[in-house]
Amino acid sequence: MRIAAGLIFAGTVSLLASSAAWSQTPPAKGAPAAPAAAPAAAAPAAAPAPTAAAAQVPPKQPAQPARAACTNPNALGVARTVEIDTTGGPGFGFEHFKQLDFLRDHEVVLTFDDGPWPGNTPAVLKALADECTTGIFFPIGKHATYHPEILRQVYAAGHTVGSHTWSHENLNNKKLTEDQKKDEIERGFAAVKWALETSPSPFFRFPALQHPPEMVTYLGNRNIAIFSCDLDSFDFKSKNSQQVIDTVMKKLAKLGKGIILMHDFQKHTAEALPTLLTQLKAGGYKVVAMRAKFPATVLPQYEQELAKDVKLPTVSSRPVNSVVTTVDQ
């Protein structure tokens, strides 16, 4: 795992608040086989390098819209919130990164990849809201441009939003150049910012949990945290919602805690989540929210390129269900 020299655990993860309920106003918003340690190299020279201004520490992450008080007295809620200093690109999730073990026994972090998507992402949001709890969303950039209104709902609900590349390309693909890999990362963040109309958190998850060492180094130089997981729900392989629930609960029983990887893109996950959250509470598990200390610095050239591509969304490559929606039948 790549971590900046001198960066220590206490400086990377700090406790912001403890809360058994969702009624408090949240703190400021922040938001696979990889080598154990990426080479400590200088910033890659092959892609647009951050300017001197971009390399400076950004301002504090702005607050999200206020959330309504929790009306469910038996909700799962949020046990505590931690603030992440992403300087040097810390890695989280014991499947690939072993250093930052900040979760306590029976604590979990809920994470969701591949959205936003009609039907499924809103259903996931409702399940989380009903239990007054929260998660980290890693949207695909293309999907963010297809459904910006859904991603804005994610943000407005108080969840942390990072990025999951532009098109879900496996960055371990040997056919990709280093510049193409960087483009996937940077264009993804630009798309999320375009959709949210504000900078996302500097949180990133590699597609398929494939961590090319040179991109781990690049993200470290960009001060972007990398998220693997402690347990994978394998919901994309599940035949039904019960299989998603069983997989997560069995793995948690063995591990006792962890960062859970799910997909708000998947129908079975959306269907499983209400019951899964109920079972987490019954099992004594507590949700931890992760927020970034400062927002992601999105490179201007990628914002400009993206703006040209999406300025006429009605004639773009958007899928039909992002243009035409049945509202009554």
Describe the structure.
Helix content is 32%, strand content 14%. The chain has a single domain (14-31, 75-309), classed as TIM Barrel. Residues 1-8 and 17-57 have low confidence and may be disordered. It has helices at residues 9-12, 52-55, 120-130, 141-146, 148-156, 178-196, 213-221, 241-255, 267-282, 300-310; strands at 13-18, 80-84, 91-92, 107-113, 136-138, 160-161, 203-204, 225-227, 231-232, 258-263, 286-292. The termini are far apart. The protein is α/β, with parallel strands linked by helices. The strands form 2 sheets. Strands 1, 2, 4, 5, 6, 9, 10 and 11 form an 8-stranded mixed beta sheet that branches. α3 (120-130) packs parallel to α9 (267-282), α6 (178-196) packs across α10 (300-310) and α8 packs across α9 (267-282).
Main attributes?
three-stranded parallel β-sheet, alpha/beta, single chain, TIM Barrel
Radius of gyration: 19 Å
β-strand percent reads: 5-15%
Helix tally? 10
Mean pLDDT: 84
Judging by the overall fold, what is the CATH architecture? Alpha-Beta Barrel
Q: Number of folding domains?
A: 1
CATH class: Alpha Beta
Which class do the helix and strand fractions yield?
A: alpha/beta
Fold-level CATH name:
TIM Barrel
Write down the secondary-structure element order.
HEHEEEHEHHEHEHEEHEHEH
| Sheet of most strands | 8 strands, mixed
Share of helical residues: 25-40%
Low-confidence segments: 1-8, 17-57
Number of E-state strands: 11
Distance between the termini: 53 Å
Overall 3D form: globular
Identify the CATH homologous superfamily.
Glycoside hydrolase/deacetylase
